[in-house]
Write a structure and sequence with these properties.
The protein has 10 helices and 8 strands. The chain is an alpha/beta fold. The chain has an 8-stranded mixed sheet, sandwiched between helices. Helix 5 crosses helix 6 (about 160-165). The protein is globular and about 50 Å long. The termini are far apart.
Length: about 290
């Protein structure tokens, strides 16, 4: 059970970050030109949090490569609404996009949120024909906490021994790339905020170390990875450390730091729809994705 300190920290984050997100996304349209959106499809038992949207280009012919989004929010904030504009921008580029909410701390502890990721990925596999998903060309993308979960889920998909720890069955989907934006890595050595400890509790950190140590279950079967951060991202050094880890393992990847002293960028700047450098980051990631599709 979360402590009063943790709950207060979570409520402070939710108020502050919601105000920042509302300001960032002010005046954006509910539907982007050329995009068809299907909203609030229930993929699990929770009618509030187990919901997802599907965005697709209105003009399409046959199956579409699919990008699955995992929003960020320190495991205690956010929803699919946080990512809807970013997702529609991807749909404008010719992708089907699955954008899901999931349960948050303190209502769940690790690995409850990843369990929801597993649920909505299995849901999209089951509904692939209905939405023209090309399951042979899938991408898993996440920002911040969502990036941590994207890497973790890709590792369960690629490594049978690691997947067994979570009790997941391998979905019938082929991930061609992973997009990791401003994510934390090496979670066992992270200095966790009080709000974060409502999800990664002391018990979790003691009893589930093998599950938490995603990088120790690294396998060459992981798809190519795009590791992006910003020059003023408080997690920038995490991204650079992980890029070095991938380099040491000779794993295909691209690592980029956006922004400079004259044009600084902060954590998660990529999801802004009013930032030209965010547009460039999106172009770079799409180029990386297209290079790795079959």
């Amino acid at each position: 059970m979360a402590t009063q300190e943790q709950i207060q920290a979570i409520m402070k984050i939710r108020r502050k970050w919601q105000a920042e997100d509302d300001q960032r996304d002010n005046d954006l349209p509910r539907v982007f030109d050329g995009v068809e959106r299907t909203n609030d499809l229930q993929y699990g038992d929770d009618p509030q949090w187990n919901l997802l949207d599907v965005y697709r280009p209105q003009k399409r012919n046959g199956k579409l490569p699919v990008i699955i989004l995992i929003h960020g929010g320190n495991w205690c904030y956010g929803s699919k609404e946080t990512y809807q504009y970013y997702g529609m921008r991807l749909a404008q580029r010719g992708f089907a996009v699955v954008n899901a909410s999931y349960r948050l701390a303190p209502d769940v502890v690790f690995p409850g949120e990843l369990d929801d990721v597993d649920r909505f990925i299995h849901w999209m596999v089951a509904h692939a024909n209905e939405f023209d998903f090309d399951l042979e060309n899938a991408v898993l993308s996440g920002d911040s906490a969502g990036g941590q979960m994207a890497l973790q889920y890709l590792t369960t998909w690629a490594n049978p021994a690691y997947r067994k720890l979570f009790g997941y069955s391998r979905p019938a989907i082929t991930f061609r790339a992973g997009i990791l934006n401003c994510a934390p890595y090496f979670m066992l050595t992270q200095k966790l905020w009080p709000a974060t400890r409502a999800y990664f509790t002391d018990q979790v950190m003691t009893e589930k170390k093998v599950m938490m140590a995603t990088e120790e279950s690294f396998t060459d079967s992981l798809p190519p990875l795009y590791v992006a951060t910003a020059n003023q991202d408080f997690l920038r050094d995490d991204s650079m450390k992980f890029a070095g880890f991938l380099m040491a393992h000779h794993h295909p990847h691209v690592a980029k730091v956006y922004g400079d002293d004259q044009h600084s960028r902060q954590h998660d700047f990529m999801i802004s729809q009013k930032d030209k450098l965010a547009d460039q980051a999106l172009d770079d990631e799409i180029q990386f994705i297209q290079k790795n599709l079959k």
